[in-house]
Amino acid sequence: MSLTVRDAALELFRAHGMTTVFGNPGSTELPMLQDFPDDFTYVLGLQEAVVVGMADGFAQATGRPTLVNLHTAPGVGNAVGALVNAAANKTPLVVTAGQQVRPMMTLEAMLTNPRATELPRPTVKYSAEPPRAQDVVATLARAIHVATTPPTGPVFVSIPMDDWDVELTGDDLEVAQRASRRRVTVPLEPSASALDGLATALDGASSPALVVGGEIDAGGGFDDAVALAERLGAAVYGPPADGRVGFPEDHPQYRGALPMAIAPVAQTLAAHDVVLVLGTAVFRYYPYVPGGFLPEGTRLLHVTSDPDEAARAPMGDALVASPVSVVRALLDRVAPSSRTPAGSAPAAEAARASSVPGTLTAEEVFDVVGSVWPAEGVVVDESPSNRGALHARRPVSRPSTSFFTTSGGLGFGLPAAVGVALADRSRPVLAAIGDGSMQYAIQALASAAMLGVPVTVLVLENREYAILKWFAARENTPKAPGLDLPPVDFCALAAGYGVPAESVSSAEELRAALERGRDGDGPRLVAVPVGRAAG
């Protein structure tokens, strides 16, 4: 009996549910893709950053590892920025790229990537090129296990194009078949003594607080975190920045997201004597506002599945374990409390009208979004200067309905929204994207049109990098160039990619346009000019 490397690899991918492939093919990838099986789906992206961004959203929405296929060195180079996002998001992507045939690699013939494993290495957990064709399947299996074990994240495998048709026989075939059957399980269950220590600290606190991170949502612990907070009578905060929302933002015990700088975080936590941070880093700070990291008399405890997050935190005792498992175990250990949580829920100010005729303020825009977009619908956000307004006026109240990039970079939002919509067509997806952010991966509109996915792209047009202007004022860097954007006709661009589009200038027009997107079964773009509030 024999199998080709290609057939054995396909069996491996099937075994892990990886039958949707995101890619942009090149000549070095065609041998992998030939005779593409009917039970697989190929999702075409017109640029490699779009390919990885769609796969990122798809993998997060499905909770499964996702296969990406890029074109040798140039394709990987185009994708590196998106891989930075995926790494920060801890998304389990298995990224493959074609390589020149082995007889010509030493010649560095065209399309050879002589340093294939080095190019993506800072952005991935594992990077490899099999030493023999017979090792391709085992290398891919290892990559899948590395991607899916905590902390999850992207991996990379470079595969010479002549490897795919090599016949596997004898011991090599057995190794490949065993690789397809293997499973690696890392439950990271906490010890009883560690749980008892956390429970004792929480029970003894006079004013406990929870900081609930995106790993709670990714692990299916959204409702469990609510139950724990209510049992403790604890105030709950979101992290300064995270890719997902792990606790309902409209819950009466929710106190908003922590500020992003060192001193303001300490000031916010001053009302609490015990702070338990679950499923996020401690903390993602920016900009630099020096000060004490933690108030005197406040004890911080940290639970994360990421050993590096635990090691680099500037304060607190850390437990490396599954945060969701810890939350569920604590529900059986902590005593019910009648405490009144410190602080009060954040209140959204009344929206003020724009000072520029024919525009809306971000607050007015998101008031409409909050009234139109259903709670079970998804919002993918990449309008950095307007993120606060979005969450204040359309608070997240359901699990797995909010996605953002943890990296601080741009280019994630639009393709990720397409990937999220592809993963589950039963719920509408809104991509709230700034006009600057739109340009980083606008080719995703073509994929949205080809796939016919239910995604509504809301472009907030302020014709500037508003968040950078805020930072310029904050960091005292006057006359910085490049912060204003030229006018761009997003409706014309969308039409060129095959996506219906319209521009609106009033709340009533915006409401009607979003309702059309919400109730439709395909993509739509809505452009809305945004101005600053009067006064």
Detailed description of the structure:
The protein has 535 residues and is α/β, with parallel strands linked by helices. Helix content is 37%, strand content 17%. It has 21 helices and 20 strands. The strands form four sheets. It has a six-stranded parallel beta sheet with strand order 3-2-4-5-7-6. Strands 11-10-9-12-13-14 form a six-stranded parallel beta sheet. The N and C termini lie far apart (78 Å). The mean pLDDT is 94.
Helix content: 25-40%
The first-to-last residue Cα distance is 78 Å
* Structural class designation: alpha/beta
User: What oligomeric state do these chains adopt?
Assistant: single chain
**Uncertain residue ranges:** none
Number of strands: 20
Query: Widest sheet: strand order?
Result: 3-2-4-5-7-6
Largest sheet: 6 strands, parallel
Shape: globular
What portion of the residues fall into strands of 2 or more residues? 15-25%
Overall pLDDT score: 94
The radius of gyration over CA amounts to 24 Å
Number of helices: 21
Question: What topology emerges from the helices and strands here?
Answer:
Layout lengths: L2 E2 H11 L4 E4 L6 H4 L7 E4 L3 H15 L3 E5 L1 H18 L3 E7 L2 H4 L21 E2 L7 H13 L6 E6 L6 E2 L1 H12 L10 H12 L4 E5 L1 H5 L3 H11 L2 E4 L15 E4 L4 H7 L5 E5 L20 E6 L2 H6 L4 E4 L2 H9 L30 H11 L5 E5 L4 H7 L8 E2 L9 H11 L5 E6 H4 L5 H8 L3 E7 L4 H9 L15 H8 L3 E3 L3 H13 L4 E6 L6
Parallel strand pairs: 2-3, 2-4, 4-5, 5-7, 6-7, 9-10, 9-12, 10-11, 12-13, 13-14, 15-16, 15-17, 17-18, 18-20, 19-20
Antiparallel strand pairs: 1-8
